[in-house]
Write a structure and sequence with these properties.
Radius of gyration of chain A: 19 Å
Structural class of chain B: mainly alpha
Number of strands of chain B: 0
Structural class of chain A: mainly alpha
Membrane topology (chain B): Single-pass membrane protein
Oligomer: heterodimer
Keywords (chain B): Membrane, Transmembrane, Transmembrane helix
Bound molecules: zinc ion
Protein name (chain B): Putative zinc-finger domain-containing protein
Distance between the termini of chain B: 60 Å
Shape of chain A: globular
Subcellular location (chain B): Membrane
Radius of gyration of chain B: 28 Å
GO cellular component, one term (chain B): membrane
Chain lengths: 205, 185
């Protein structure tokens, strides 16, 4: 595993190759094997980074990358258009990653417990935190963020990863998660509040 | 604007999704209210930390290797199975799948730990290994060493029999969903 310096956010796959994404998707749906191979090349990184962020290790990220493409290959006839290809692909990836995550964690009580944090509790929390911006300084390492992310319920984790980490829009996140934008907003709010709480507590201990 | 109103708009404020008027109202309140300002500072900090987080890059070879494995598990596996079915009408589906996957994957593959454990002379671990492991043929050539330098007689037999394939050090993976094959590393 080489340098971790680069901030690998989601970026639209390169378009400098001969065929555009819409052309490739069209070819893929019509059993053009070379189109599929090219789509794998263009999207494998996006899936790997997302899976790594969810699962935190190379082996699991690798499994998600492989399994996602194997599954979308088998289900290629279900793809209706280009827009649906991207969200379908990312949906397969996130669903499989969530399954793996649940397997790795076992059936945890902690997440359920955190899930039930009400709005009131959050406000109470914010009152307790006197100078949060001072506490949440650069000492919060990426590893601590990872640990904090682990405490979120899977769907909240994915939502905040797609939106705040990868910089996708709420509409895109909603398409991938098969939910409304309102749900994206509410999951995002809960996830941010929990992360803030966990990270702040971690530092003050 | 009350504290309650402000806090309810903070997410959208941070995401820059408020109307200019609403944003101005939030800004005014934050300027006047220390408590809400602290809350805003913490939330904005969390979002900015998340935006900076990065993933360790796998070795560059990983991308072409995983593409090849995906190829072997999808595009290449179907015609191979068909050919085999046409050739020999008997034989279990699992065996067909296995030979198809192993054949397709012979252009690919992996497993550092295997190589490392053999270099260390740790034979016991591999002796118990039942699952097939993969290795890339072009990488094997690049290694410039006969397999006997790395592998036990038993594992060499398994390579000959198609239940063991070996590969690039970068390509350590888990292939739990290959039909009839579970890989260890
Ligand atoms: Zn206030």
């Amino acid at each position: 595993m080489a340098d971790s310096a680069s901030v690998n956010r989601w970026t639209p796959p390169h378009r400098n190759d001969e065929r555009s994404i819409p052309e490739l998707v069209e070819g893929f749906v019509n059993d053009d094997a070379s189109a599929f191979t090219e789509l794998v090349k263009r999207f494998q990184r996006n899936i790997y980074y997302l899976a790594y962020r969810i699962l935190g290790n190379h082996l699991d990220a690798d499994e998600v990358v492989q399994e996602t493409f194997v599954r979308i290959y088998r289900r290629r006839k279900e793809i209706e258009n280009v827009a649906s290809f991207t969200s379908f692909l990312m949906r397969i990836a996130t669903n499989f990653a969530i399954d793996l995550l649940r397997k790795r964690k076992g059936h945890g009580g902690l997440n359920e417990e955190l899930d039930s944090l009400s709005g009131e509790t959050q406000t109470e929390l914010s009152r307790r935190v006197r100078t949060p911006s001072e506490m949440l300084d650069d000492k919060v390492t990426m590893q601590e963020i990872r640990k904090a992310m682990d405490k979120l319920a899977p769907r909240q984790q994915i939502t905040i990863l797609l939106h705040d980490v990868e910089g996708r829009s709420k509409a895109e996140v909603a398409a991938i998660m098969e939910c409304t934008e309102a749900t994206v907003r509410s999951n995002l709010h809960i996830a941010r509040a929990k992360l803030k709480q966990i990270l702040t507590k971690r530092l003050s201990v | 604007m009350t504290c309650r109103d402000t806090l309810s708009l903070l997410d959208d404020f941070i995401d820059d999704e408020l109307s200019p008027q609403q944003a101005a109202q939030v800004r005014d309140h934050l300027a006047a209210c220390e408590e809400c300002r602290a809350e805003y500072g913490a939330m904005a900090r969390v979002k900015s930390l998340l935006g900076q987080s990065s993933v360790p890059e796998p070795p560059e070879e990983y991308w072409s290797e995983v593409s090849a494995i995906i190829q072997a598990r999808t595009v290449d596996s179907v015609p191979l199975i068909r050919e085999r079915v046409a050739e020999e009408k008997s034989g279990s589906a699992q065996m067909l799948m296995r030979s198809a996957v192993v054949f397709a994957a012979s252009a690919v593959l992996l497993v550092t730990t295997l190589l490392i454990s053999h270099k260390r002379g740790d034979q016991s671990q591999s002796a118990n290994r039942q699952a097939p492991v993969y290795m890339s043929s072009h990488l094997t050539e690049q290694m410039n060493h006969p397999l006997s330098d790395y592998l036990s007689k038993q594992d060499q037999d398994r390579i000959a029999g198609g239940t063991l394939v070996i590969g690039a050090p970068s390509m350590v993976g888990r292939y739990s969903s290959l039909a009839g094959i579970s890989l260890t590393y």
